[in-house]
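Journal club side-thread
Mid-discussion, someone asked how the predicted structure for our own chain would compare to the paper's figures. Pasting it here so we can look after the session.
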Amino acid sequence: MKLAVVGGGSTYTPELVDGVARLTGDIKVTELVLVDPDQDRLSAVGPVSARIMGRYGHPAKVTWTQDLDEGLDGAGGVLLQLRVGYQAARHRDETWPVEVCNCVGQETVGAGGLAKALRTVPVVLDIAERARQRAADDAWIIDFTNPVGIVTRALLDFGHRAIGLCNVAIGFQRRFAGWLGVDPGQVDLDHVGLNHLTWERAAVVDGIDRLPELLEAHGAELAQTVGAPEHLVEEIQALPSYYLRYYWAHDAVVAESRGKPTRAQAVAEIEKQLLEMYGDPTLDRKPELLGQRGGAYYSEAAVDLLASLVTDAGDRQVVNVRNQGTLPFLPDEAVIETPAIISASGAAPVPVAPLSPLMRGLVAHMSAYEDLALDAALRGGRDRVAMALLAHPLVGQYDKADKLADRLVAENAAFLPWAQ
């Protein structure tokens, strides 16, 4: 198999390459091609990726190119990990919503998340259409590009063989498995919601839910990790993802952000150091600093998913997939993040218990926003942007939606042909 990584110049890539080198026993990867428009990044990331593969003794050829068509030609799998506008656009997403109306600025949440969707969806759809023409007929697209839920919905709506992937669930799975002293594959999570809006309601090992004892023994640490009050975790007997803090502690998050560097600025500094490290011709393993970049266990999640699609494994993994009646209060075509059975035919969500009103209300609200966000990304127009913002639970007021829409369009005009 030829495996194409679009956005291969990302500083994430050596993490992914390390996973491909270690974990692809069931997949015969013969070529790993990194595709990116930034030649300077490719010149650093490409060679270190080849050295990592070589250190593990993996026989695959590692190549890199700025030519998207060349990278996609004959690919049996396409991984998307791109960021339109790089960290500079992310920095703006994290600042102007706060300036305009004291709304949270974040790359996947609120007005910043909408801005990223508007920049990203058209680019991803263009890549996917070219993959349809040039990649293998049975090639899968695995999307790690944020906002994963909206991007995956766009891919599926246009008929692409695509599955969305996030590392939140696998991070919890690995942590729980370590505490329980079991192999991670033995831990089945009852992971429910939308991308970046999820809860862990159970951690089942050999048919027994071990989450209650995990919360009893490690509740304070887990609550601190996700930024939630410990009493709340005890009350709902579920662990929210870190992203719930943007909703349930919105004002505190905004207050904390003032006067501090944005996450984009912090990541940009880490990326600068990583690219310098990657330029060292003796480096043949992913550096420890990469752990601060984010995306922990991304490689394991991506390789596990790809392997199961190729080998028709029929195992259970958490992915972003069509709802298909799993959450009956959402349309079938909505994209949810949920456990699914992975086989050669794709991902089939498994039945889940009904969501509590606390969870159900926010999930329904956000799913409706995502419908409008995708419509704005596909058709453009300032008014569609404003309607999507009005529907967002962190905006929801006419004056805020109007002000944010005007600023969003102004900040992103270079990436939005309809706004130029």
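Post-session note: The mean pLDDT is 96.
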